[in-house]
Amino acid sequence: MVYVRSERAGQRVMQGITQYVEQRLKLKVNRHKSAVDRATKRTLLGFGFLVRDGEVKVRIDPKARKRAKERLRQLTSRRWGISMERRIREINRFTVGWTAYYWLADTPTPFEQLDQWLRRRLRQVRWKQWKRIRTKRRELRAAVGTTACSGPTATA
User: N or C: which end of the chain has fewer CB within 10 A?
Assistant: First the structure.
């Protein structure tokens, strides 16, 4: 990526670089991937750029978010019959790497949205694992019992 002030300068630089790469380095330039455009409309290695309050910010490219969601959808498939511990281990392996790669993004919202969506998917997996109504009732009561307030109660 080369940044210049105007589109005309961009066209001139693009032509010069293309000539240099093809003639001097004997490489082929992919004209489909090469373009002169605004930085906010192009992506680089899964990152995009936006301008907010006169500052350039880094964001996660929507395609990268879609790919991450697709991978998590595979890992939380209710048809994949593995233990919840192994499933969470696999999900952690993926999410730790993904968040480590995209940590410098200036937008926290994609991380929060993905977290909410993943928690919902995990609840769906657990619900599907509890096959019978009796099991669902017992497990839900056990979950409520562990989160209930253990402090003193008021009596009337």
Answer: C
Angle between helices 62-75 and 109-129 (to 10 degrees): 20
Tens digits of per-residue pLDDT, 64-87? 999 999 999 999 998 888 899 999
Confirm if 47 and 61 have CB atoms less than 8 A apart: yes
Give 53-111 as a DSSP string. Answer: TTEEEEEE-HHHHHHHHHHHHHHT-TTS---HHHHHHHHHHHHHHHHHHSTT-S--HHH
Taking the domains of the chain in order of start, what are their residue ranges?
A: 7-59, 61-147
How many CA atoms, within 13 angstroms, populate the side-chain half-sphere of residue 70?
6
Which tokens is 38 given? Answer: 């605004």
